[in-house]
Design brief:
The chain is mainly beta and 117 residues long. The chain has one helix and eight strands; from the N terminus they run ββββαββββ. Strands 4, 5, 6, 7 and 8 form a five-stranded mixed β-sheet that branches. Strands 1-2-3 form a three-stranded antiparallel β-sheet, with no helix packed on it. The protein is globular and about 40 Å long.
Length: 117
């Protein structure tokens, strides 16, 4: 894996042998400390605090959604737009995980993704 940092707050990891393959972006918020969560806390109340896993293969995406659902995780309703789809789930510690598929690289920009480089 090759790492490229931006302003010390974001790091994108991409395989050196496949720059169009799986990418992992890590973001660390350093400008303010988290506040204690009130009883009615929602994920969106303090910014986006989750991790996302994506696939270009719809069948793989659907298999993972089925597997985590069968494992007892709370899976929220899927949002599908054309061939792309995403859903959020909560793990057993209440951490938000996003699962998504954008099978057509030509529509990545429509979903807020820009190619590296």
């Amino acid at each position: 894996m090759e790492a490229a940092a931006t302003a010390g707050e974001s790091c994108v990891l991409v395989p050196q042998d496949d720059p169009h393959g799986c990418a992992v972006e890590l973001v660390q918020y350093t400008t303010r400390a988290a506040l204690p969560e009130p009883a009615n806390h929602r994920l969106c109340d303090q910014g986006i605090l989750n991790i996302a896993f994506g696939s270009r293969t719809v069948a793989d995406y659907k298999a993972v959604v089925a597997q985590v659902s069968a494992g007892g995780y709370q899976v929220h309703d899927e949002l599908a737009i054309g061939p792309a789809a995403a859903c959020y789930l909560l793990d057993d510690q209440g951490f938000s995980v996003e699962l998504l598929t954008i099978p057509d690289p030509a529509i990545e920009r429509d979903f807020g993704f820009a190619p590296l480089g």
